[in-house]
Each structure stands twice: as C-alpha cells, then as structure tokens.
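Homework help board

Subject: predicted structure for assignment chain

Our instructor gave us this sequence and asked us to write out the predicted structure in token form, then describe one feature. I got the tokens but I'm not sure how to describe them. Can anyone check?
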Amino acid sequence: MERIGHYIGGKHVPGESGRRGPVYDPSTGQQTHEVDFADTAELGQAVDAAREALPAWRATSLSKRAEIMFRIRELLDERKTDVATVLTSQHGKVLSDAMGEVQRGLENVEYATAIPHLLKGGFSEQVSTGVDVFEIRQPLGVVAGITPFNFPAMVPIWMCANAMACGNTFILKPSEKDPGAALVLAELFADAGLPDGVFNVVQGDKVAVDAILEHPDIRAVSFVGSTPIARYIYTNGTANGKRVQALGGAKNHMIVLPDADVDMVADAAVSAGYGSAGERCMAISVLTGVGKVADTVIDAIADRLPKIKVGPGLDPESEMGPLITREHRDKVASYLDSGSAQGARIVADGREHQLYKDSPGFFLAPSLMDNVTPEMDAYKDEIFGPVLSVTRAETYDQAVDLVNRNPYGNGVALFTRDGGAARRFTFEVEAGMVGINVPIPVPVAYYSFGGWKNSLFGDAHMYGPEGIRFYTRGKVVTQRWPDPAKSTVDLGFPRTR
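My token output:
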C-alpha cells in the first residue's frame, strides 16, 4: 500500500510514529493509500525547519517574495489539472468542480502577488517639532493551518499564500481523509523557488492538532472545519497564547420571495445544494419559501433532480460524485429517516439511486425534503451532504427571523426582483456573507471570507485584507534626528506641541 508522508524542510519525510490511517477512492470504495500520522516529535521537526527558514525568508525583499508568488501562480495555472485530478481521486468531487476549486485558490495567490502594496504602512511628518511617526506591519513568525477534507487545495492556499507573502513560514496539517493534494502543492511551491522550510506539511490526526496548539513557537493557527472542532481549536490555541482564526460550520438559508423567477431559483438551489455532493461550507442546505412560492419551487427542483448525472468524479459525464467516506454517507442518509419520522415529506430520496444500492463507492443521490421545521434534526444539524430541506414562512419578516435565530451565520441568499427588499435584507440579516440572487456568495480574493455567530471563532475573517492583518502585527515607530546641541533632560510626559 502506497504511503503518504510528511514534507519537512523541502524533503519528503516518511512518518516514524508507526501510526497510519487509510485513504480511499470514494468512487470505488477501495483503499488506495496509507497516510502517516505525526506524533509530537515529528511536528517539532517541522517547527524546527520552519523556524530555521524564518530569518532568511523574513529578510527576503518584498519584490522577491512577490516574484515567487507570481511563479507559484503560473505553475498552479499550468498544473491545475494535475492538482485537480489528485484531489478528485481522494475527495470524490467531479473533475470540473475540482478545477474550479483550484482556480479559486489561484485567485488568492494572485492577490498575494500584490504584497508590496498590501504591506504599505502610513507616515506622518512633523507630528511634533522634528518628530515623525510611521507604522509598519511585520510577520508573526511560524504559523500553522489545519484544513478540512472538502477543499484540500483551495483552503490551504487561502491560508498559506498570504501568510508566506507576509514573511511567515507555514506548517500545514491537511485532512487525513484526502492528504495527497497538500504534497502536490508543496512540490509546486518548491519548483517555483520557495526556499526549503518556508512551507511544510505534517500529516496526522488529533495528536498532530494538539501538538500544533501547544507548541510555543507556533504564533498563529488558522482552521476551517466543524463548529465543535473550531471551538476546541480557538479555546486551546488562545489559551496557549496564539492568535487564532477558526471558521466553523454552517446552515446556509436561501430565502425565496414570491416575486422571484422560479426557474432561476430552481437552477440556483440545485447547483448550490448538490454541487460537490453538498460537502461545502457554503452549500445551500435550507430553502425558505415565503408564501406559496415554495410549492412551485419544489416542483421545479424535483423536476431537475433525475437529470443530474451522479457518478465517479473522473468520469467527464458526471455532475455529482460520491461523499468522502462510507460512514459520512450513511450519516447523511440517516437524516432522511429522522426527517420522515419527525414529520417531513421526502420529495426525492437519494437512496433509490442505483449507485447507492449496488456500488461499493460512497454515493448518495440528491435528496429533497419538504415541510422541515426548526425542531427537526435535519434543520438543527449541519448535514454536509446532498440533502436539501424546504421550510415555509408566511412573510418576509418570518423568513429573516428564522435565519437570525439560527446559531450559525456563515452564508445566506435572497432571491427576489425587489431592490428595496434586497437592500433591507442586506441591512437586517445576521450572516457574514450575503448573496442577492447569488446562491453561493463566496467573496472574491480581494475581500475576506468568514461568517458570524457559531460559524466563526476569533475576530478575523480569512484571506483578503483581513488575512493580511491576521498574519502580521503592527509596529509604530516614533523618530527624530535632533541637533545634539539642543538636547536637554525633560522628565515630563512627551507632548505633541
């Protein structure tokens, strides 16, 4: 069985802990690799490599760092099919979706190429007689990222592109479910001229995570994953004096007003609810119809579901692939049973698909439930799979109240032709990312990604301007070049007059 190891100090390093985990091809259900699980000592080796590389990388000019980012951008564009193929083989998403993931990661590298501009500070001349003040932002040092299985290329790039461009060295702990893409990125970065030790990969499970949270030389931790783990990362990371941004789970609603275009709504709901088999933190999982529009929308969605081609991710005809593991697939499918038992109506049951019944892969076809209420498990939990729930609201106010009372606040969408309603919605809704007739409002790379409430722990969103601020700290310098002949002793507090 081929092993997937670590990447430390510019070299592939096999694990020495003796602990390993399986990696599967979700389309076939077959184990394809074993991945090494790091212990505390191996994480320490990565920290040592990152710490050793830090002084030279920190001293590297902004123009040189930008040049390397441009090279990374070009190589990532050239090799995006290779990167996408690796993540498809281990995650299961269809190749076109994987290509889109790599493209969105590439856009974050493009943003990082502007690091000479992004790190510009301010300067104030003559704040007092002969005194000038300026502000600069400097890197934190060694930083780490802990990333989820659903975007094994894009989310690491969200973190490391800005972190490295700012002058930090980086340690990535990818998901143990699809760890291969991280090593492909490491090799690509090295080919682009990134010095050894600036980017390191440590494979592993909770042991590696805890080692990251406890190591005194890791200054900051970025995380994307479920809310319980995000809370754990934030609590333990900050308790150990680290700067932490921890993005958690989601329950993204799509509110449909009576004036919305039904065909547009149905297309958007199907795309956003079932793309990547629903394994997106920005997937639409709840559609809330205001008034009687839900009936028409449900019919339109149900009409589209049989036409979705479910199949292996590398099959060019497939539109939706399998889920990441058999256990996760079965958990997602269980919400159809609990929803029905609690009073929901099953409009489309993905377990009736032939691939669910007969394939050894981890397939579950698109599923649709109507009459879901906030008391049901299907509404309360983040399902993270191809199960779309429909709720009802009599008025706009009830629909917005439903969203605002939900403990998650990641993304939300409103579909309407009414500009006044859209503006009011943007003003009132409690979520970090809002789409108006856009079902998956993932910000472009020059804005920042992040939710509210239980979807975010910490005060910094990811990538974009907030990413630059997260990976740097401010320093204000007050200086003067006085005439020695005019120097005097003055025990009073400094004044600016």
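Reply (TA_rk): Your tokens look well-formed. For the description, you could write something like this. The first strand starts at residue 2 and ends at 4. That's the kind of observation they're looking for.
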